[in-house]
Structures are given as structure tokens and as C-alpha cells.
Amino acid sequence: MPRGFFITFEGLDGSGKSTQLKLLTRSLRERGYTVATTRQPGGTEMGDRIRDVLLNSTTQNLAPMAEMALMFADRAQSIHEIIEPALAAGQIVLCDRYTDSTEAYQGGGRQLGSAPVLDLHRALCGDLWPDLTLLLLPNLDASLARARRRNIRQQAQGTDEGRFEAEERDFYERIYRKYQEIAARDAHRVVTIGDDGTIEAIERRIQSIVLDRLSEKG
User: Fold this and answer.
1) Which of 21, 39, 124, 153 is the most exposed place for a label (fewest CB within 10 A)?
2) What is the DSSP string of the chain?
3) Measuring CA to CA, how many Å separate 74 from each of 28, 60, 62, 132, 212?
4) What's the total number of domains in the chain?
């Protein structure tokens, strides 16, 4: 059976990536594709436990290296349990965040640098990279404002995932620059969508990109 196709969505919180992943999932399934979806951190039983530690605002004094190690523990489990089996079965895999997030947030935001992130990726993830990464990188301040409003709503509903959104703006400026660096370094894999268009316009653009890549794969 031909191997499947691995697509990741990247971007700051509030960039709209999770919404676009859902829209693309629906569109591809309507076209007859078999699609597996997941997110990082999370998506597996173990990953959801790790997610709670990483994103909950009550988590204090987590060392940057420990934070990065937890991200990769979650990722290794996701590859073993979800991503590799789905790709082996010929499915399209859509993943909300992957190693680019770790390079941007821990490598850039936490100032650990890219080298330790890429070393761990090779060691723990078998150097598995997506076939295509869709990087949503609209206006920084607008993204942060949307993310913080969302977290206020979630907290009112009893869900606390606001640990990263509590960081200062310069943290996110470093993340933004690192994402730009990643996109420039791997320009074929990473397609940047940097405008603040409507959800529908971005959806159409993403569908066009994905269908073109699937056609290239045959």
C-alpha cells in the first residue's frame, strides 16, 4: 500500500490553525480521502496527561529543558500510536503542531536554540518530517488577543490552558522570528500564510495548496 501523506499546521496560538485543520479535514473527507487527525501536545492518553502539565497555568518553575523534553515525550508517543500507523495505512495525517512548534517556542521563545530541538527530533522521532507544513502567521498582536480571549472563555468553562499565553510579548516576538527562520530554511515543506484574510479565503488557499501537493504525490 502506498504510504500516506503527513500535513502539519503551525503558528502562534490564535492564528486560526486549529479551525483551518478542522475545515481541511471535512473537505478532504468529502473528496473521499481517509484522514486521521491529532494534536500536539495531546491526542493520546499519555499525551493528554502531558498536555495538562505543559499548558495548565498552575504549572510553575518548569525548566525550559524539561518543558522541551515533555514535548518530545508526547511527540514520540503520538508518532508510535497515531501518526506512523496511519501513514503506513495510506491515510492523510493532519496534525495540529509538531517539531516546528518546539523549535519556535522552546528553541526561540525559551532561547534554547534550534540545535537541541533538531537533535532530539532525530533521536526520538526517527527524523520523521511532514510532507507539508502550513504555517499560519498573521499579525502577532491580533493572534495574541484572540488566544487570550479564547483562554478566558475556556477558564469560564473549567479548562485552563493559558500557561503560554501569560508570557510577555517579547517571548512571542522570538517565536514569530523563529517561525520565519524555519520557513526560510525549509521553503518547500513550509508554506507560510501570513495575511489576515477571512476564514473562508484562507480555507480556499489551503485547499488549493494541499490538493496541488496531493496531485504531485500522485
Assistant:
1) 153
2) ----EEEEEEE-TTSSHHHHHHHHHHHHHHTT--EEEEESS-SSHHHHHHHHHHH-TT--S--HHHHHHHHHHHHHHHIIIIIHHHHHTT-EEEEE--HHHHIIIIIIIS---HHHHHHHHHHHSTT---SEEEEE---HHHHHHHHHHHHHHHHHTT----TGGGS-HHHHHHHHHHHHHHHHHTTTTEEEE-S---HHHHHHHHHHHHHHHHHHH-
3) 26, 19, 16, 21, 31
4) 1
Question: Which pLDDT band holds residue 10 (cuts at 50, 70, 90)?
Answer: very high
- Alpha carbons 145 and 131: distance in angstroms, whole number: 31
| CATH code where residue 121 lies | 3.40.50.300
Reported as a single tens digit per residue, the pLDDT across 100-125 is 999 999 999 999 999 999 999 999 99
**How distant, in Å, are the alpha carbons of 65, 86, 111, 112, 189 from that of 120?**
11, 23, 16, 12, 20
Q: What is the pLDDT of residues 28-49, one digit of tens each?
A: 999 999 999 999 999 999 999 9
pLDDT bracket for residue 26 (50, 70, 90): very high
pLDDT at 149 over 90: no
